[in-house]
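Instructor's aside before we start: the two examples that follow are unrelated to each other. I chose them only because their records fit on one page, so don't look for a connection. First example below.
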Amino acid sequence: MQHLKDLIQRYLKGNATPEETGALNEWYDSFDDSEVSLPLEPGEDRQQLEQRLLNRLRPAMQPVRAQKPFYRRYAAAATVAVLVAAAGIAVLQHRNASPPKNIIATHPATKEVLPANKKAMLTLGDGSTIALDDVANGALGKQGGARVVKNTGGQLSYEADHAGGEAVYNTLTVPRGGQYQVVLPDGSKVWLNSASSLRYPTAFNGAERKVILQGQAYFEIAGKAAQPFKVQANEMEVVVLGTRFDMMAYADEPTINATLLDGKIKVQDKILRPGQQAVLALAGHQLTIGEADVNKIMAWKNGLFVFNNMDLPTILREIVRWYDVEIVYQATPGKELYGGGISRNLNLSAVLHVLEENGTNHFKTDGNKVIVLP
C-alpha cells in the first residue's frame, strides 16, 4: 500500500518513470468490481446507481481511462482519491466560505460534453492546412528539409532529411477541446495544451533555435550548446540552458509564466533554478521570480485539474479551454477558494457536479454553454 501511495505521488508530480507509469496503469487495469460493493437499492436502475456513485465521488485524482464501464471508472477513481489523500494530496475543498447550499442543481438532458482529445491543425509553409485528427497515421509529406510524420497517440514528428532543403515555417494549432505533441527537427519534444499554437522552422539551420508560442506548452529540449533554444511568448522570451520547463501565455490570463522543472532557463537577465517560476505581469510589465507549485502547473500534462487557492472564474477559464464551452454568468461567483484536484478525463457534467458540491454556485448546461447560477 505504501508503495502505491509513493507511486501515485511521483506520478502526480510528473516524476514517475515510464516503467512506474506502466505499473500504475496495470494496477488500474486490474481493478475488480468485486472490490467495491455495488448493490442496487429497491426500485433503483443502472442509471440511478451511476448517479449515486457520482454523488459519493470525491475528486478523481487519477486520470480515468475511457475504456472502462462508467460504474467501474468511478469506483476506481474514488478508491484512488482516498489513497492520494492519505498520501498527503489535498482533496477538493472550498475555503473562507459558508457551507454549500443544500440544493441539487438540475442539468438538462443534453448531450454530454466530453473532455479534450487529440486534435490539431497543421499549417504548412505554403499556407495550406491539414486537420491532423482527420488524416491517417504515417508520412504527410516533406516540408523544407524535413519529413513530416503523424504518429500514433496524438504526436507529430519532423525527421531531418539529410538531402538538405531550405527551412520553412510550420504552425501547429491546438483548438479548445484538444491537445497534441510535436517532436521538432532537433529532437526536442513539445506538449501543447488546449487553445495553444506553436510556430517553428522545419530545420534549425541558424545560430539559434527559436519557436513562437501562444497558449501553454511543456518543453523537453534536446541539448545543443552551440545552438541555443529560445521560446518567444508574447512579451516574454525564454533562453533555454537546460531541459524541462512549462510556459503559459494565454491571452485571457493576466500573466505570462515560465516554470522550470529541470536544468536552467533565463528570462531577461534572471537565471531560474529547478522549481522556480518567472511571472511577467501584462499590466505594468513587472517580472518576478519565485518558488512554483510544480504539481499544479504540470497537472494539465498529467491529466488533472489541480487547484491551489483558486477562485471560480480562474477555474472556469481552464474549463472553457479544455471542454470548448462558453461561460455565461447569471450570478456573481462565490468568494470561496478551491484546493485539490479533479481528473481531466471526466465529462463536463461530473466536473461541474464536484464544483457544485464544494462551492456556493450551481451550474446549468445548454449545448456548449455553462450557465453560472446562484
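Example two begins here.
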Amino acid sequence: MSTTRRHIFDPLNLAALLTLGAVAFSMRYYDPARQATAWLLLGLFSLGFLSLSLFPPRLRRVEHVVIAVMPIVALALIALDPKPGTAPVLLVIWIAVAFSDWSPRVATIALVVVDTIYYLILKYVAGFGAPLMSVLIFAGFQAFAALCMHYARSAERARDALARVNADLLATRALLADSARDAERLRVARELHDVAGHKLTAMRLNLRALGEDPAFADHPQVRIAEQLSGELLGDIRNVVQALRNSGQLDLATALRALAAPMPRPRLRLTIDDDVRVTDPAIAEAVLRLVQEALTNAAKHANADTLDVTLQRDGALLHVAIEDDGRVRDGWREGNGIAGMRERLAALRGQLRLARSPRGAMRIDAELPV
C-alpha cells in the first residue's frame, strides 16, 4: 500500500471520512435552493481534508493555508442553513487536524476564534434562542478530538525518539563489535608473532646447525626440514601482517543501522574503497555527525533523502553530507551543530556548513586518519 493510501486510511482519518459521509447524507434536509452551494462547500472541505495526506513534507506552508481555510468553509456551510445541525461536526474534524499540525497554543487560539464566529452565526444569522448551549456542546466534542490528537502525536514523537535511541544503540553496538574483533585479531597476531614465530626461528637455527654438522651433512631430510621451517616462518609473518592490516571498523554497517529505524530521510551512503578507519574515536565522530544530520534533515528541512559520501585524500577523511530538503530562511546553528564542531575540533578536524543552489543544507567535514 502506498504512503498516501496509508495516510488516508489511518484510523483517525477513516473516522473523519465516515463523519463527512454522515454530513453528506444530511444534505437532503437543506433548502433545495441552497443544496448546490452546500454540496460545493462540503466538497471543498472534503478536498482540503484529503489533500493534507497528499502534500509532500516540504510543502508545509501550503498545508497550513489549507488548514486555515477549512474552518472558513465549514462556517460558510453552517451560515448557509444552520437548521440541519450537522455542519458544525466539520469543526470537530478541523480542530483535530489543527492540533495535529499546529502548536497547541496556536490551535487553541484558532479554536476560540472559530467558536466565537460560530456563536455569532447562531445568534444573529440563524436567530437561535440559546446559541451558547449549542456552541458548548460542540466545543466539548472539539476538546475531546483535540486531546485525542494531541496524545496521539505525543505518542508518535515518543515512538520516534525511542527509535532514534534504539538506532543509536545498534550503531554503537556495531562499532563496539568491530572494536572487539580488532582487539582479538591483534591478540592473535601478537601470539603468532611472539610465540610461534620465536619457536620457529629457534627451530630453524637448530636445523641449520645440524645441516652444518658433518655427521648430518649427507641427510637431505635435514635440509628439507630447514627449508620448510623457513617457508612456514614466512607464512606466519604474512598472516600476522594481514591480521594487522585488516583491523578496520565497519562504518557502513554502523551508519545503515543508525538510519534504518527512521522513516525519513532515507540514507544514501557512498564509501570509497580506499577509506580505512581504525580509530574508534574517528568512527564515533563520523557516526555522531551523520546522526545529527539525519535529525536536522527530518526536523528542519523536511528532507526525503540524505546523501553521505566518505572519501580519503592522503591523511584526511572527507565526509560530505547533503539532503534534498530546503533550509528555512533565518536558520541559525543550534546546540547540535555546536556539538559537531566541538567533537571534530577535539580530533583536529574541521566542519563547514553551506546551502546548496537548491536551498538544501550541505555539511563538509575533514578528519585526520
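The two ends are 45 Å apart (CA to CA).
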